[in-house]
Design goal:
It holds the Pfam family Glycos_transf_1. GO terms for molecular function: glycosyltransferase activity. This is Glycosyl transferase family 1 domain-containing protein. Helices cover 42% and strands 17% of the residues. The chain has 347 residues and is of the alpha/beta class. The chain folds into two domains: 172 residues, 3-Layer(aba) Sandwich (Rossmann fold); 157 residues, Rossmann fold (3-Layer(aba) Sandwich), CATH 3.40.50.2000. The strands form two sheets. Strands 3-2-1-4-5-6-7 form a seven-stranded parallel beta sheet, with helices on both faces. The relative contact order is 0.12.
Length: 347
């Protein structure tokens, strides 16, 4: 078995969802017998009893944090140090010592290219033992355009596998995420407004600074009585939300490999989304497990929503295929992929 350390040291890049993924993978590897450690800026309360070790290095003077991190790495048996963001790579790559360095990127190629991360990935990830991305498409694009010779792809895992699925007979579209600009729920509300029929409702689960603006937008679009702002719902209660919906929608400007699509698929829900990343395409096979619309194309998103809202048989066909496809994201399959990477690096 191997020593594995995951370093989540970027509060700005890593949101709660990405941190939960790190701790889920850590638990999966620990259950296989690996000696797993997670370095984070703040304590994370995992689901269940953790079999790995958490180390909290709170933000402080850079030299102090580096000394703490270097001391921890030196105290561990040689293994694998997984740096889970560009910031973690730049902070830690010269502290690795006897450990193999793995740089993970939690977003999509398109997102990196649109901001400052692409330059960091291009400058630093190629010097590591391996660079890991969320989908084969993202790995290929980084290899081609960032000239990385060491790419690998591993998706985010599902934390659990539900035994009950949605009957897909309730007139409800579900969307989940922070009510912030990048999620573009305004576009989803507009698309829903174009196609709303009968007693269909759009349920938005999440909170954020754009809640008031989105409520006004729902009034402007004439669907205020059909858009339900549900606020934050605890993760342990989300299974009931998926079972109560008949399809899930995603309208973001950019995404990595969005957990909501995998979770919805595991409950037998088809999805409608903007085609904004390799991760989205990895989760939604257009016409097979859901429907994709060109990025930002509200009429196309409305047409896709309308097609599934109007056709129960099609929802059930796509939903059944989505659940079968989602099996590849179950935690044991993802842990297998990590172990394949470790075997590859030992050769």
């Amino acid at each position: 078995m191997s020593t594995v350390l995951f370093a989540s040291t970027d509060a700005g890049t890593l949101g709660g969802g990405v941190r939960r993924v790190v701790h889920t993978v850590a638990q999966g590897l620990a259950e296989r017998g690996h000696d797993v450690h997670v370095v984070d800026l703040e304590p994370v309360i995992p689901i269940g009893r953790p079999q790995y070790t958490q180390h909290v290095i709170k933000p402080g003077p850079t030299r102090w944090a580096r000394r703490r991190t270097a001391a921890l790495l030196a105290s561990l048996e040689p293994g694998y140090a997984v740096m889970t963001s560009p910031d973690a790579v730049t902070r830690m790559k010269d502290l690795l010592g006897r450990h193999k360095g793995i740089g993970q990127y939690p977003g999509s190629y398109a997102h990196a290219r649109a901001g400052r991360h692409f330059a960091t990935v291009r400058a630093h990830y190629g010097t590591l033992d391996q660079a890991v991305f969320l989908s084969p498409d993202d790995a290929w694009q980084f290899a081609e355009h960032a000239l990385l010779p060491n790419t690998w792809d591993i998706p985010n895992p599902l934390a659990s596998w539900p035994h009950e699925v949605s009957p897909l007979d309730r007139p409800r579209v579900l969307a989940v995420g922070r009510l912030t600009g990048v999620k573009r729920f305004d576009r989803l509300i507009s698309a829903f407004g174009r196609t709303a029929r009968g007693d269909w409702e759009l349920h938005l689960v999440g909170d954020g600074p754009d809640a008031g603006r989105l409520m006004v937008h729902a009034v402007t679009e004439g669907v205020a009585d059909r858009v339900r702002f549900r606020g934050r719902i605890p993760a342990g209660e989300m299974a009931a939300e998926y079972r109560a919906a008949s399809l899930v929608a995603l309208s973001s400007d950019h995404e990595g490999l969005p957990p909501v699509l995998a979770e919805a698929a595991s409950h037998g829900l088809p999805a409608v989304a903007f085609d904004v990343s390799g991760g989205v395409r990895c989760l939604i096979r257009n016409g097979e497990t859901g429907l994709l619309a060109p990025p930002g194309d509200v009429p196309a998103l409305a047409a896709a929503l309308g097609a599934l809202m109007a056709d129960t048989r099609q929802r059930r066909r796509l939903g059944s295929a989505a659940r079968e496809h989602a099996r590849r994201f179950r935690l044991p399959r993802v842990v297998d992929r990590w172990e394949e990477l470790f075997t590859h690096l030992r050769r």
